[in-house]
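Late entry, written up from scratch paper. The run itself happened at the end of the previous shift, but nothing got recorded in the book at the time, so transcribing now.
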Amino acid sequence: MDLKGSKAVITGASSGIGEAIALELAARGACLTLTARRGDRLEELGSRISAAGGEAPLLVVADLRQADDIGRIFHESGERWGGLDILVNNAGLGRKAGFHDGATEDWQEMLDVNVLALAVACREALGCFDEQKGGHILNVSSMAGHRIPPGGGFYAATKFAVRAITECLRQELRTLGSPSRVSEISPGFVTTEFHDVLYRGDPEKIAAGLPQYRVLDPGDVAASVVHILEAPDHVAIHDILIRSNEQES
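Output as recorded:
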């Protein structure tokens, strides 16, 4: 795919991996719809993209726990850009909530954002893709979708679900004869705000939960995302596992 002039929706774009992906795609001439809950962060990112010479993105403040908000993202994106080529399902979060003692509201939040919102966004995007040339859905998952990290069982369960959704959708698209592609990228530890959310801003727990070696930068993940999206039409890169060279598991 030639990213210049392509039309993309990126969820969870206000920081971290989503922000890095937005900057990479904008630098390649993509027309972006960026969505997150924090409007001030979106505005700052949009200004950076415009200042760097990129096409001014459409900014949509939305809560992905609300299905109506997800529908609104794609409606406004279609009105602005006249179509859709790429969906990057980046929004996601983790909570320290084990199966033996986890709070139901924490489980519900992870399911709503990591699983249900992702599935709804996939469905909405497919309805926006051109039937003849198709589009590309890229789900940002986690190494936790491939093994169970200590104390992160419920979060891992949601990321295993993302793997299942991605593969099921790939099979459905093949059965339908659709030219659209679906991919996944599964990062290990990355320098993002993930641990701030995981430990609810507790500085001691955040510091204790981070590795002492250099972990991935969001730009490392974004570079692999570009590699996936720019693959020739006959190439389907289904999943990339990416982690620090020093990460043990």
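Residues 7-241 form a domain with the Rossmann fold fold (CATH 3.40.50.720).
(Scratch paper discarded after transcription.)
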